[in-house]
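Support case: user asked for a sample of complex input and structure output to validate their parser. Sending the pair below.
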Amino acid sequence: MASLRTTLRGLGVSRRAVFLRGITSNTCRAFSTGLSPPSKGFVYEQHGPPDQVLRMVELPPVPVKENDVCVKMLAAPINPSDINRIEGVYPIRPQVPAVGGSEGVGEVHAVGSAVKSLSVGDRVIACPTTFGTWQTYVVKEESVWHKVSKNVPIEYAATVTVNPMTALRMMEDFVELNPGDAIVQNGSSSMVGQCIVQLARIRGVQSINLIRERPGSEELKEKLKKLGANEVFTENQLEIKNVKSLLNNIQEPALGFNCVGGNAASLVQKFLRQGGTMVTYGGMAKKPITVSTSSFIFKDLSLRGFWLQKWMNTEKAQDCRAMADQLLSFVEQGELKYEMELVPFIEFDTALNYALGKSGSRPKQVLTF
Amino acid sequence: MASLRTTLRGLGVSRRAVFLRGITSNTCRAFSTGLSPPSKGFVYEQHGPPDQVLRMVELPPVPVKENDVCVKMLAAPINPSDINRIEGVYPIRPQVPAVGGSEGVGEVHAVGSAVKSLSVGDRVIACPTTFGTWQTYVVKEESVWHKVSKNVPIEYAATVTVNPMTALRMMEDFVELNPGDAIVQNGSSSMVGQCIVQLARIRGVQSINLIRERPGSEELKEKLKKLGANEVFTENQLEIKNVKSLLNNIQEPALGFNCVGGNAASLVQKFLRQGGTMVTYGGMAKKPITVSTSSFIFKDLSLRGFWLQKWMNTEKAQDCRAMADQLLSFVEQGELKYEMELVPFIEFDTALNYALGKSGSRPKQVLTF
């Protein structure tokens, strides 16, 4: 793979821009049917803090081979896993140098001669996720792309494959939930959290939702309740011995989700019923999970973890396109929504800083091209 | 149920001895076929520290009804769960006043007129466990008792139903182990720990065993190795980054057992392979279990608990007699052994103090009658 060599100026952005050859996953093959347009992408040559190692790069045209599809990107989010990949702390990550980003939506710009399922103008998402979506044109094999409806707002198509899918899988894969059952979660205002609230509501499952105490938490409670949350508590409200006394007509939950750690994870355990399961999928507080011996022995709790990336590497991942379709149809029907902030691609720095939490908590940052 | 009323002196023991009516689980019924001999038992009227609330009591004869079997006890252990029941901190416990103890072996002294499966002179164990084995004569329904071979030393028959059975179930119920696989455990010198070492050896499963650093730990290592332990480490030896570098030709374990908590539980997790399961069945260090977020997400660990008492209340408990037979046949064949200290019933105080850890770590205390 070529290394970054040539510095260019004058891209209208403040970053150092460089030409880069061979940065996409496509190396030259025999039967190219044309070239992609030149592309602009956010590239890192080495692992480190994203605001230090990412650079806007002009990427030269690459061959669109017979099985390839060239997609003009429309929108791509900045996910925590993208940040962690750039930092080098995520177990599955591309080799450097690499273009950032892993999910997104675009429009088919050109197709290779052997491509059958997609045509120019189709709207497509990378499903399962792929690497390198933070660029204006992405060339990948036909099999990477999944056609989606144009009736769905691009920011939802751009974001369906990571967070909503995590929520959907976690609702399915650990405990059989029936209407009237309940779940409990912390970090409920996260994008996965918002999806869990709504997927629960759609299934007739009740949700108990924990959020941090912070300015605006009353408004956040109302927002989550509008999405279908049955109960929303700030963690401070739960500094009592018997949290379950707060549940009115809600069943003790059999399933809990933890994306915070520390005390917030202990609170989820407190709500769980005998024999319940807590699934950890994030660690926003950067604190470990603590469990009492009696929670395991007498309360028979199970503690598990979920990682979508690993799921995507199993045979079950063949379901992911049907899952994306289902989730996007919920969006189309107005049954599933979540907060996002759309930021033009050329204002990447702003979106990145928001995604890095430099201005406190912000909704999901979605780059638009 | 009658309360303790009358104080008697002169039983040859230092404790206050009292008559107690109706303390066994057998209340008067219509068709008694005789009376048991008077019995002596260790009784608690209220929950509290066992060395303060237990009293030697003379129990009057009780009816041996048509379905009852009167057993002259031969041996009964003092288990941690017995201590916790007396303290009132164990979730499943008899109503007070109660005779202590929950497992043991005896000889059939008399049978009710409808008893078919047992005869005077048979050696029997309470299987599943029952309450009130710390007394010289126990009258319980026929269905409580399970006939065992007289070729097995009484101390093994007396102790097979709690600790070895915990070890056996935990080896069966969580992860499918095949010859060549490995397990890891802490608290390896406990009675369950010794059984796990040997049940692993019998199945061709390798065992990695952690023990506390303390005087005599080198001798303990040798003892465990003689039982079949493949590796034994003191916790201090494992204060290195990559504990797995210590494993020679042993597979990364898929299953771990924790009866300690705190750092010793973290060490078990460190040894486990991707996707491994840690089962907690005790908390000797009285410290919680701590788990990193990444252990759940990226390493995909599952954390579970095991409680034999709960298992005994499921339909699976019908297997427990076959399990006891299997375990006792291992004992008979010399394949299963563990350390115990036999103490005459009249020296109950001594055994209790040892069981309470007042003289440091001691082998399992088994009362002999």
